[in-house]
């Protein structure tokens, strides 16, 4: 097939390649809604599981790091594929964009088989390594919950990758529909699968409900791509063979992106050690609970950052560096302004936000401490918007290693600053200020690096060539 087969744009592709400001909004709004639905689903899912008792709730926390690996791999490969595909769409190379999408699916299928081969036979030893010293009752709940997830890991990984592929061709709304659909189905099935008034499968039921919800979402994706065929990309598996240039292009961004998520998880473990030393279980409880709140508050900037990858990658493939600058500047402007507003609201209503986790008399004494950290921590949100945008720009331009280095720098700066604060001060307040200082400093340094990269890119931009070749 000709490498430059007829390039018939869908409405989504026209948006992706059109006005960069409109493209950013078209990508960011559905992605933000999807992330909010996912967060709400995780919270309510935990509430259903909590009804099974302490062992069940502890099991979710123990199993989470194991499947954070799955999330990291599928999101990493998905981001790498989205960058590579959007770049080819921008260059109007339909055939190669199709082949890149097929490569992403084959790669994730291989990764799924490898993970299943490792997880299923070694599940109990891995869980004992993650949760040393846990009771036999908790271990059994861990196995009941983790085994169905491990057996059907291929479903989760395919949904994660194809969601990114949808966004790569500008179909962010469809990606949103899938994630919202899966969340709704999971919330409906959970109580029926878990409790005795339904199937009564307990923790196994919670896992099976999640698998079933993801399987329905995956079937809808397959319907769109292979039956209805109304999307831009076509997965071409006939005569498939790996092409080194495509694989390198996906991995150049995908592997660093996967490592970014794992590094964040590792830093949380180190931070918990410092918090235990400084404030015991209360310190860990305040920090972890408030970070859940802050993570929800950051969802809009995450949605905007996610929109930068396909929009700027497509502009890069089209040699429209002016569109990269416009999209990047616009994304920074709206995400920073939005975070300033959210910061102001958080500072005013921190005690009310803290009540989400301190409504019970047993945890009410933590409310003032949580409100204090929320007020201090919220100050870094506008700066994080700058850093997140820069990392997305690096991914869009195929500079995955730079994005990884940025994540390492931002996160590992946190540890020495907070460790020194613990050694030289008393109480948790200085740790909160140390954490905020680290986030602000790291984000500003990454943002400066992003502007340097953009400036260097623009120096090589020929307006006449760029405009005539678009």
**Secondary structure: number of strands:** 0
Outline, from the CA principal axes? globular
Rounded radius of gyration (Å): 23 Å
Number of helices: 18
Helicity, in percent?
over 70%
Order of helices and strands: HHHHHHHHHHHHHHHHHH
Share of β-strand residues: under 5%
* Category by helix and strand content: mainly alpha
Distance N to C terminus: 23 Å
Major β-sheet profile: none
Low-confidence stretches: 466-470
Q: How is this structure best described in words?
A:
Helices cover 83% and strands 0% of the residues. With 470 residues, it is an all-alpha fold. Helix 2 (20-50) packs parallel to helix 12. Mean pLDDT is 86; it is low at 466-470.
Architecture blueprint of SSEs:
Elements: H1 11-17, H2 20-50, H3 54-90, H4 94-119, H5 123-130, H6 136-151, H7 153-168, H8 172-194, H9 202-228, H10 244-297, H11 299-317, H12 321-358, H13 367-377, H14 381-396, H15 400-412, H16 414-424, H17 429-459, H18 463-468
Helix pairs in contact: 2-8, 2-11, 2-12, 3-4, 3-6, 3-7, 3-10, 3-11, 4-7, 5-6, 6-9, 7-8, 7-9, 8-9, 10-12, 10-13, 10-15, 10-16, 11-12, 11-14, 12-13, 12-14, 13-17, 14-15, 14-17, 15-17, 16-17
């Amino acid at each position: 097939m000709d490498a430059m087969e007829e390039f018939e744009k869908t409405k989504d592709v026209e948006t992706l390649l059109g006005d960069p400001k409109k493209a950013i909004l078209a990508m960011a709004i559905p992605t933000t809604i999807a992330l909010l639905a996912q967060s709400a689903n995780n919270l309510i899912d935990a509430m259903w599981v909590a009804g099974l008792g302490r062992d069940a709730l502890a099991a979710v926390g123990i199993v989470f790091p194991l499947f954070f690996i799955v999330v990291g791999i599928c999101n990493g490969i998905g981001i790498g594929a989205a960058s590579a595909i959007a770049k080819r769409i921008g260059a109007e190379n339909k055939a190669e964009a199709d082949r890149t999408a097929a490569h992403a699916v084959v790669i994730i299928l291989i990764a799924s088989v490898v993970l299943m081969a490792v997880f299923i036979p070694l599940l109990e030893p891995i869980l004992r390594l993650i949760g040393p010293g846990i009771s036999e009752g908790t271990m059994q709940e861990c196995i009941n919950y983790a085994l169905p997830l491990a057996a059907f890991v291929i479903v989760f990984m395919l949904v994660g990758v194809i969601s990114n592929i949808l966004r790569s061709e500008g179909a962010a709304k469809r990606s949103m529909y899938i994630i919202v659909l899966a969340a709704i189905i999971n919330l409906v099935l959970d109580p029926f699968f878990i409790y005795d008034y339904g199937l009564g499968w307990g923790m196994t039921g919670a896992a099976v409900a999640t698998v079933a919800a993801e399987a329905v979402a995956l079937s809808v994706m397959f319907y769109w791509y292979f039956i209805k065929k109304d999307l831009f990309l076509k997965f071409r598996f006939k005569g498939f063979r790996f092409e080194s240039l495509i694989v390198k292009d996906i991995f150049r961004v995908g592997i660093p992106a996967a490592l970014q998520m794992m590094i964040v998880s590792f830093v949380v473990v180190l931070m918990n050690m410092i918090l235990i030393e400084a404030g015991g279980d209360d310190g860990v409880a305040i920090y972890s609970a408030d970070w859940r709140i802050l993570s929800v508050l950051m969802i809009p900037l995450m949605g905007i950052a996610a929109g930068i990858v396909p929009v700027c990658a497509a502009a890069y493939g089209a040699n429209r560096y002016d569109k990269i600058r416009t999209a990047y500047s616009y994304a920074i402007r709206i995400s920073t302004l939005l975070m300033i507003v959210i910061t102001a609201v958080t500072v005013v209503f921190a005690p009310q936000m803290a009540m989400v986790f301190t409504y019970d008399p047993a945890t009410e004494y933590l409310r003032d401490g949580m409100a204090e950290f929320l007020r201090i921590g919220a100050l870094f949100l506008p700066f994080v918007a700058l850093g997140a945008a820069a990392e997305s720009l690096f991914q869009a331009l195929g500079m995955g290693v730079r994005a990884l280095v940025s994540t390492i720098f931002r996160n590992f700066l946190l540890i020495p600053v907070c460790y020194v604060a613990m050694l030289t001060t008393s109480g948790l307040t200085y740790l909160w200020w140390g954490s905020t200082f680290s986030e602000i400093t790291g984000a500003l340094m990454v943002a400066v690096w992003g502007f340097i990269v953009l400036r260097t890119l623009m120096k090589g931009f020929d307006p006449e060539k760029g405009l005539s070749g678009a």
